[in-house]
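Help wanted!
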Amino acid sequence: MNLTTSYLGLTLKNPLVPSASPLTKHLSTARELEDNGAAAVIMWSLFEEAVTAETEAMARFLDNQDTGFAEVGSGFLPQHQDFTGALDQYLDHLRKLKETLEIPVIASLNGVTSSGWIRHARSIEQAGADALELNVYYVAADIRHSGAEVEERYLNLLRELRSQIQIPINLKLSPAFSSLGHIVAAAAAAGANGVALFNRFYQPDIDIHGLRLQSTLRPSTSAETLLAMRWLAILYGRIEGLSLGATGGVHTAEDAIKLLLAGADVVHLCSVLLQHGPAQMALILNGIQEWMTEQGFESVDDFRGRVSALTVPNPADFERANYVSILDSYSSAPGVRV
Amino acid sequence: MLQKSMVTLDGNEAAAYVAHLASEVIAIYPITPSSNMGEWADEWSAQGVKNLWGTVPRVVEMQSEAGAVGALHGAVQAGALATTFTASQGLLLMIPTMYKIAGELTPVVFHVSARALAAQGLSIFGDHGDVMACRATGYAMLCSSSVQEAMDSALIAHAASLESRVPFLHFFDGFRTSHEVAKVERLPVEVVREMINDVAVQAYRARGLNPDQPVLRGTSQNPDVYFQGRETVNPYHAAAPEIVQQVMDRLGALTGRSYRLFEYVGAEDAERVIVLMGSGCGAVEETVAHLTARGEKVGMLKVRLYRPFSAAHLVAALPASVTRLAVLDRTKEPGSDGEPLYKDVVTALAQAFAQGERATMPRISGGRYGLGSKEFTPAMVKGIFDELSSPAPRSQFTVGIIDDVSHLSLTWDADFKADATLGVTACVFYGLGSDGTVSANKNSIKIIAEDTDNYGQGYFEYDSKKAGAMTISHLRFGPRPIQSTYLVGTNEASFVACHQPTFVARYDMLEKAREGAVFLLNTATPAAQVWDELPRTMQQTMIDKSIQCYVIDAYGIAAATGMGRRINTIMQTCFFAISGVLPKDEAIEKIKAAVKKTYGKKGQALLDRNYQAIDATLAGLHQVVIPGTVTSTLERGLTIPVTAPEFVQRVTATLLDGHGNQLPVSLMPADGTWPTGTTQYEKRNLALELPQWDAELCSQCGKCPLVCPHAAIRAKVYPAELLAQAPAGFRHATVKGKDFPAGYQISYQIAPDDCTGCGLCADVCPIRDRTDPSHKALNMVEAGTIHAAEQASWDFFLSLPEYDRTQVDPTKIKHAMLLQPLFEFSGSCVGCGETPYVKLATQLFGERMLIANATGCSSIYGGNLPTTPYTTTAEGRGPSWCNSLFEDNAEFGLGMRLAVDKQTEQARELVTALASALGDTLADGLLTAAQDNETGIAAQRERVAALRVKLQGMTGPQARLLESLCHQLVKRSVWIVGGDGWAYDIGYGGVDHVLASGHNVNLLILDTEVYSNTGGQNSKSTPLGAVAKFAASGKATFKKDLAMMAMTYEHCYVAQVAFGAKDTQTVRAFLEAESYDGPSVIIAYSPCIAHGVDLSNNLRQQQLAVNSGHWSLFRYDPRRAAAGENPLQLDSNAPSVPYREFIASETRFSLLTRTHPDIAEHYLQLSQRHVQARFELYQQLAQLAVQKASGGAK
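Answered by r_m:
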């Protein structure tokens, strides 16, 4: 049975790639991922904003500790000779992952300024990353900015980056675009070798006692795969040379199979591994293989995109009409008047 | 002789360097000014720096100095080479064990940065009060008088202790030597190795406790042998001085620096000689050199080995020609007829004279100087020599103060300067603590001292405040070693820098400038207009002294180059550009190199920013043309209102003006009692932004006054008619809610001069304008735009009456915040996490509070002069506050309770006895009053007032006795306040005992999870994985669960609170704790700058701490158990935020991920599991069914 897949120009042994998460922070866990079948790993995301904030905090609280108060002449926190900045630590870890693992290592960056992105990306390329994922975690909250401006911001970043580094670039996108297909095509033209659909934005919640926001972290559920599945199906085969990754909500072999059927080159896993550990990956891979056996598929290529817009009899089913019919078929709970 | 290695360091580092090399075990406890020695040792050990024997010394932080010396005693008995570092009360805590160590003839060295002892008040500054208290212990006492000596004598002490078997106390003056930065020769490790005698080390180890060669030490001895046993050590003490001299001679041969036990300096035929020890020797030596150069027959005898006191060496060192001696002590023994060194010298010379060893007996005067780091200058030394020249020198005197009570003080000519000031470049820099002036100057000294042939000295004057603290850096450079152990004085500085524009109007900075000096001013005003903004006196001084003035807009450049408000490198660049100490380009290159060393690992952006700022500075530096005449009418100084009390006018105002040294003894309270309520006169005007209240939008929730750390935003409710006198722009709104009389108005008013601009009030404000969400009911705005109007409003607000306390429902935040804070405008940090709790307690109970305050942050912002934040109501009632020590605070507060209870009991007995004369109604009322709310307390106050009137008309001893006790009939609220260092560590035994006692006291533990006041040392409250001093690789154990321990008594009220997470729970806990007739303990989460967080995020950090499970909220009330309910109520929910998110927001944790990432991740996992498990444990406890029991405290 041939599980190999091509992704960002890399040949992967199978289509399962753990997405950016803290799981890669330990070499032993990364090794476990590899042993359980991961075809590549994506390192945790290096947030430029966080790196900058931490740099500022460290500078302020370690190097600028003057208080003017006689009893605290030397500041509060001990000075360290062996201090390693967040970026250097990331690069060190990338090098160690490369030494430890045989599978490709993909770095992940999240940034907000073009200079920041580029400086970090170059360092990452030099440290040996096989590819770079741009984790565009940007909430367009400024009501003065049009969708076109936001898109242009992404594309400019991509173009600048493409001119600076040689390794493949994958763009992790949110679904919040008015014309998703267009931005994906434009990203490919600007230099992206692949896209991952979709980024999850962690949504703040409201504390009704304190009348304030509070942060929440809720793991994904399988239901979240459906949005990505639709868009993968729509985009499959449309953009020459562009890899498609599915991310968000993959918890079972069934989830993964659906996304592959819709057209994904790879399927990313995160919450399921955080919740159940790296061994879960092997179970999902087994599930895919069992299903392939049942279905009589010899390779992933045999069934990838089999249920995409290019291949289903009625592509419009992936579009809006679908929504209307589903709603119409929905019946309310007993006692609830619709 | 080895190649000289010159380094620039302070006295603490110098001593610690040797101590670390020569020790195996280091047991310490932090105390100013010695803390840095332990911190250095810990840091070196953490870095793997090895001792002389090739192993890394083990450093352990104990729970107190008593604990440290106990551990040390064990270590030395077990044969390890050991040392400790301490000072002041810490050294006093070690004294009992010191007798043991000395009695057992055990080599060990204590390095002490000598500090004043707490008496009428605490002082963190230097004198010999602490070490002098140890002179009977049997320790050798070796004194260093300079930074170089601190290193050399540290080695002499370690070497001599091993050879003599006498334990050594090596001391030097706190701050003046411990914190003076100087260029010295570092002792090469080879020299240290050579000096330590291996045979002595082997012999020492062989004496260590060893089951293979068992011995027994520490017997209980009876009258038959104890005395003889006490005399056995005589030969060892007798031999010690000669051993020390031999060690000194060996060191001299190896380094070229020779020392004597008693070292004479001056004319060979001197007639007048001063004897002293410590840093004052520098000032005396300069004066002696100055006077002998002019033919005067004067000299100085420097005492190095004070114990064992070798009279023979002293007599031998003193010229036979001496006829007048002044022996100076930097300590005081009240009631004695002389201080220790004086008496030792008198005895030595009298014996020598009597035995014919000296032909003449000089006339000997004893003088006190320099207590609590009082300045000691060549001018004062000259005054002493002048006194010795008088026909009848006083036998006892003081110098450095004006004593108009005992009339002991000498006068001196303040204009006298020793020749040593010639050829030395002196500079002074006035900065804010937070602007980095001190760091920049330490760096400048390093650059000059280490990269040129110049010697350098830096000394730093600090402030008593934590927010907006002023620093004055005193720098000297010159071709010869600098002995000037005193501040840069009047007319001495050739460079004066003012790093803060606001100082111009407050301080006379040019007083120190010499003729032709440079004055560098940081100001946004262009050079052409600066002159017009200077005060009149400053203009005059500039003209008189031909000052060259330069200006730089450092804040402008900092903002433009992304440096925020960090101006240190900018001002440092200016200094080098103007002063010419180094070629400009070379200096700038070195500043950039220093910047790179500091920030290189932290990020390119920081480096770039600093480089840009340095480059932009040179273009922005301009010289001001000084006109020939004064044009200003501005007057410098602060204005104290004429309505202020006389004490404030005479004393506080002088202190605030920086002239406290001029206050005579007669103006000092004799017993340390100072008036409260004086911070209101300080008017520090620190805030760059002030909160502005939108009365219409406000929901009147009362959260803003609750969170304010400085009581600078207040609420009042008052009748509308009082607004008739309101100034224009005074903001008010009709008070909402049925609890208040119709039409009454409410105002939330800021005190613009007292606000520090932390922004917490605006942060907590929950109300946003629906049409403009960026606009809240409180908004921070640029201070200048509203300051004047708010000042007028504040003055009017103060004139409004307080709302009737009896009409307030304190369980509601809005109501509780109408109660007047009786703790205001303290010197705590901007955004302090502790003070809102203290303030809340004073609002709720302040009128009847006694406070026992443990030493620490809360005693410093609570009682550090010049001003006092505890204040009174219009009726004159308010908290009565006292600080005993760090370690005894719980017991101290219990004592207050016992006094109150005893006197209340007797007052009640007297009321009963006098009932018929007083009238049964009054007597019954007094005895049966329910004082469980404000109405009941107010009624009892009225009864007590009526009682006083009755008693005035009565005769007899019982009436008089009751008159003196009747105030105790009003319920008292005893509060025991302190930090986690006290409650979890040094005072824990007392806390435990007081809780166990069942008495009605309230413990408020302000838990910052670290020793905040002494600079961030690890405590038992420090959480797992937090980086702190002595936990450089993260605290390796979980935080002590003090609340759980207290709950196990079952009769204690226990609450864990965090006002920023759930304010109503906090207020409820305070009310319940106070109302409980038994011991109560409130453990209050207090974000601190030591956490490495910006305290404008204080509230967010509390929320994160609670939501992540780091800090659960709960209340344990024994009264509920008595009622058949579960006593424990959990007030916070299960952890809902990943612990990772909490720790990522605080540098104390995130630092570990940058230094020890694997350990950090391990601790994170452990902590995540721990907080979840602990929450579940508390949840289960809170859900247990409880049988109705008798319960309660008593």
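OP: Thanks! One thing I noticed: The radius of gyration of chain A is 22 Å.
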